[in-house]
Each structure stands twice: as structure tokens, then as C-alpha cells.
Design the sequence.
């Protein structure tokens, strides 16, 4: 139960830190942090969360990561469903808290609310196919970095830094395309509150990251697995 609680709180922190920076700070007049700042916020959220909870739950904070780690032989299948439920619930609570904070400003409009999308809902107007490829490839590479950084042969203690910087880079690449998901819990958390039609496109931000997570795990097993 403590592991599930760690995943709940860690995903809460990831969504509040990453999506919160996008909703509250990205476009603030004169002081906006922009998409580079949002990218860094997501990276810092997972980095700090990994150091806080990695020794308790493994610090997945992402259903695609949990599934990828299972495929990669690093996670027990029986823990998948409880982990995913904890991650989604933690993310949704963070979305609700963020909504309560943001709606306290006069003239607040929900709009996209840091949600993900393609076509008309893509920040850069990218197509469904572009979004699908982007999310699959970047999630796959995210899993490769996670599996490599947490390998027993990797330098100890540095995994959260590598993973946090990887997530930052992923956002720098893909915010214009999909507003960056690579995490179904993160996408669900804000799509529930958005007024942009994001719920209708949420399926892609479950399917693509999970497919990418599986592919990334298979790639790392091929490259990094040591034969006994």
C-alpha cells in the first residue's frame, strides 16, 4: 500500500508541477516561462519525485512506464493494475487542485488546460499521424533511458537526473506537436477539466505511450540484456 501511495503522490506532483507551470506560468504577461520553462518543470518534477519516492515504489508515475518496465522484466505483472489506478487518481487530484487554483483568477478561462491533442488541438497544428509517431517514438526512447539509467551496471544514484533531463528534452521536442504526453495519467488528469474537446482525443494519449513503452522495453532488452 505504501508503494501505491508513493505512486499516487508522485504522479500528483508530476502533474501539479508540469501542468501547473503550463497553466499558471507559461504565458504570464511579462514573466512567462514559455515552453522551455514548462519543459524544465516537467523534468524537475520527475527528477525530484524520483529521488523522493524511487526507493519506495520505483517512481514510475506513468502507466506507460509501468507497462514498459513489466515488458522489460523489471516489474511484477500483478502490480500493474494497482500502480496504474494510483497514478491516474493522483494525476486527476492534481488536475482538480490546479483547476481550483487557476479558477481563482478574475477572467479565468479553462481553454485547453495544458491538455494534449492533434489537429486543431495541436499547438502547432500537427496531424493525428504526426502525433501518433511522435508519442510512440519519444515514449520508446524514454523507456530506453529509464531502463539504461536504472540498470545495475549504470552509475548508482544518477538515474533520476538522467530521467528528468530526458523528460525535459522530450518536452522541448514535442510540445509544438502534441503538447507532450508520453504519460496517459498526465493526459487524463487535465483532459477531464479542459474545454477544448481533449477528451475526444484522449485515446491516442493512452494508446501511443503504451505502444511506445512496450517498444522501448523490447529495444533495451535487445541492446542491454546480458546473456547468462
Sequence:
Amino acid at each position: 500500500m505504501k508503494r501505491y501511495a508513493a505512486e499516487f503522490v508522485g504522479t500528483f506532483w508530476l502533474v501539479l508541477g508540469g501542468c501547473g507551470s503550463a497553466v499558471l506560468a507559461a504565458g504570464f504577461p511579462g514573466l512567462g516561462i514559455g515552453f522551455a520553462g514548462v519543459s524544465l518543470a516537467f523534468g524537475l518534477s520527475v527528477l525530484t519525485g524520483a529521488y523522493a519516492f524511487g526507493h519506495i515504489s520505483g517512481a514510475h508515475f506513468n502507466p506507460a512506464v509501468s507497462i514498459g518496465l513489466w515488458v522489460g522484466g523489471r516489474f511484477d505483472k500483478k502490480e500493474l493494475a494497482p500502480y496504474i489506478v494510483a497514478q491516474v487518481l493522483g494525476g486527476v487530484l492534481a488536475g482538480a487542485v490546479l483547476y481550483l487554483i487557476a479558477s481563482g483568477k478574475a477572467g479565468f478561462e479553462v481553454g485547453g488546460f495544458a491538455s494534449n491533442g492533434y489537429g486543431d488541438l495541436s499547438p502547432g497544428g500537427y496531424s493525428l499521424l504526426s502525433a501518433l509517431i511522435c508519442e510512440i517514438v519519444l515514449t520508446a526512447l524514454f523507456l530506453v533511458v529509464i531502463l539504461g539509467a536504472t540498470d545495475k551496471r549504470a552509475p548508482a544514484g544518477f538515474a533520476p537526473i538522467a530521467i528528468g533531463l530526458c523528460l525535459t528534452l522530450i518536452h522541448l521536442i514535442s510540445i509544438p506537436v502534441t503538447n507532450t504526453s508520453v504519460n496517459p495519467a498526465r493526459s487524463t488528469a487535465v483532459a477531464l477539466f479542459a474545454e477544448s474537446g481533449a477528451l475526444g482525443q484522449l485515446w491516442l494519449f493512452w494508446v501511443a505511450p503504451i505502444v511506445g513503452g512496450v517498444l522501448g522495453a523490447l529495444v533495451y532488452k535487445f541492446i542491454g540484456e546480458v546473456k547468462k
